[in-house]
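Hi R.,

Here's the chain you asked about this morning:
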Amino acid sequence: MISLTSPVEIWAHRVPAGLKLALLSLATMALFALDSLFWQGLALCGGAALVFSGGQRFGAANLGSLKVLWPFLLLLAVWHGVTGQVSEGAIVALRLLTALMLANFVTMTSRLSDMVTVVSFLTAPLRKLGLPTRALELSIALVIRFTPSIAQKGAQLSEAWQARSTRRSRWQIVMPLAASALDDAEHVSEALRARGGVAASQN
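And the predicted structure, written out as tokens:
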């Protein structure tokens, strides 16, 4: 699991992870500053153009990982429709889609080791105070890396359930998803122990 989540290597893999994360932060702040449906739609188109600049296969993989959002977006649309805030609901939905699309773009094109390096740079002031930060750095990087993977597995379990039942999956996939996440965590733990643990990764 400690590998690139992209099915292909694209130009963005050669861009420093720190720069990508900084631009992602700025883009996210800009999305929250925009309160116009037109500009949010334009931002979504721009995000899609960036994603598909890596090719159709890369773009399809990025958008495919967003399938788990559709139930939430549907609920969001219904709620805002009932409350008479259709425009506001559309803005929130477009903002969410664009932000997660861009976040996926960054995680799909950044190695875990590069993520750890960025977090290590950001936590440098804490080390100067004498606080151990290596475990925190690795934990943050792992969360960033594994969140899209867990979401994708949730979508796959949901599809498998629907293929075997006429009812929609709800709580039934929680236990299999938790077991899968624990299994992945165990594999990562074994890999870290084989490399000497967190302390060895500092060398």
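Residues 15 and 109 are 9 Å apart (CA to CA).

Let me know if you need anything else.
M.
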